[in-house]
């Protein structure tokens, strides 16, 4: 068997995405003519070019997927660290606003300074408290822990905040626990 016939047979037997036998036979040569080396080279170049473009697309998709996963991992890692810190912030607020010594006491002033510093650091990290006073109840931001009758508030308006809620950027970190008017 001649070299040209073996090459033509290899092209016809290929299962990859290459030019089909019908495409080769539709060339300017008459039917039954042997495929010359130039056409075979062109077919091989097209095949390799298609594979290369597919590999580039796969690489690009991989990079995008890794970037999305990295962002999600970073966000979840930050949330895991920040949620326990919010409990510490709650304790600082109880110490400051609870049955603590009167203002002007050095110990209380020190606790307030630490608390303000903590809040500044959290704000720089993108953590902001959710405003509840005088707002309508929003189930996306608030968790209702009770309902009360209130003449001074309209229905579904927040009457009291039991625990502060926080946002991390545009995501809910912890919902505000509130009492809502009936």
Your description of this structure?
The chain is of the alpha+beta class and 182 residues long. It has helices spanning 3-13, 21-25, 37-97, 106-124, and strands spanning 127-129, 142-148, 158-163, 166-168, 171-174, 176-181. It has a domain at 129-182: Nucleotide Exchange Factor Grpe, Chain A, domain 2 (Roll). The chain is built from four helices and six strands; from the N terminus they run ααααββββββ. A three-stranded antiparallel sheet has the order 1-4-5. The relative contact order is 0.09. The model is unreliable at 13-33 (pLDDT under 50).
Give the helices and strands, then pairings.
Elements: H1 3-13, H2 21-25, H3 37-97, H4 106-124, E1 127-129, E2 142-148, E3 158-163, E4 166-168, E5 171-174, E6 176-181
Parallel strand pairs: 2-6
Antiparallel strand pairs: 1-4, 3-6, 4-5
Helix pairs in contact: 3-4
Q: What is the mean pLDDT? A: 82
**Tally of DSSP helical segments:** 4
Classify the beta-strand content into a percent band. Answer: 15-25%
Q: Which CATH architecture of the domain at 129-182?
A: Roll
Oligomer state equals single chain
The CATH topology annotation of the domain at 129-182 reads as: Nucleotide Exchange Factor Grpe, Chain A, domain 2
Strand order of the largest sheet: 1-4-5
């Amino acid at each position: 068997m001649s070299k040209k016939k073996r090459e033509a047979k290899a092209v016809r037997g290929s299962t990859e995405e290459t030019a089909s036998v019908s495409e080769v036979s539709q060339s300017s040569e008459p039917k039954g003519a042997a495929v010359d080396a130039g056409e075979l080279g062109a077919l091989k170049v097209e095949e390799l070019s298609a594979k290369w473009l597919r590999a580039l697309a796969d690489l690009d998709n991989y990079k995008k997927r890794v970037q999305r996963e990295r962002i999600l991992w970073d966000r979840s890692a930050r949330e895991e660290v920040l949620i326990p810190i919010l409990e510490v912030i709650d304790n600082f607020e109880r110490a400051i606003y609870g049955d603590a010594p009167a203002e002007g006491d050095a110990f209380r002033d020190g606790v307030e300074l630490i608390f303000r510093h903590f809040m500044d650091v959290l704000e720089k990290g993108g953590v902001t408290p959710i405003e509840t006073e005088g707002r309508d109840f929003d189930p996306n931001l608030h968790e209702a822990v009770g309902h009360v009758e209130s003449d001074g508030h309209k229905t579904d308006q927040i009457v009291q905040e039991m625990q502060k809620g926080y946002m991390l950027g545009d995501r809910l970190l912890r919902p505000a626990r509130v009492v809502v008017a009936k």
